[in-house]
Amino acid sequence: MNWGGLSSVFFIATFKFMFCTSVGPAFGLAFYETYLAAFLGGSVSAALFYFASDKFLAYSHNKKVAKEKELLAKGVLVPHKKKFTKTNRLIISMKMKLGIYGICFWAPFFFSVPVGSIIVAKFYGKLDKTYPLVVLGMAINAAITTFLTYAIFG
Predict the structure, then answer these.
(1) Residues 46, 108 contacting (CB under 8 angstroms)
(2) For a tag on the chain, would you pick the N or C end, based on fewer CB atoms within 10 A?
(3) What range defines the domain where residue 117 resides?
(4) How far is CA 136 from the centre of its chain?
(5) Which of 153, 112, 137 is nearest to 22 (CA)?
(6) 121-131 confidence digits (pLDDT tens)
(7) 9 contacts 32 by C-beta, under 8 angstroms
(8) What is the pTM of this model?
């Protein structure tokens, strides 16, 4: 068993899930080894960022408020950012078109796993079925990308 290859696929999957299986054949990993390393890496990262998303969002909000207070104390006019940026519009249109299943399956895949998991938690975090759908999406996406990688490069 190639532990270096397995750990490489695992750690790539924790951040950019879409491309993690492409290194499997280069390390001489079997199909199932690449699949399991990719699935576990993505699932561990999704769990960490999904369940810690409240902390990340609260930290970001508090940092923004503190910066605004600091600027106001100095007498500087606080510039307000646009609420609807291109990225926000993309995320909202994805939410409207794809719904809960599309967001849970594809946000961690197309964005990065941390960003996608936080988006899923922000939109659907109060629903009990959300995290199992993210894990199911990781399993399906890992199977598809691993199959395509080994069909093309294997």
Answers:
(1) yes
(2) N
(3) 3-153
(4) 14
(5) 153
(6) 998 988 999 99
(7) no
(8) 0.82
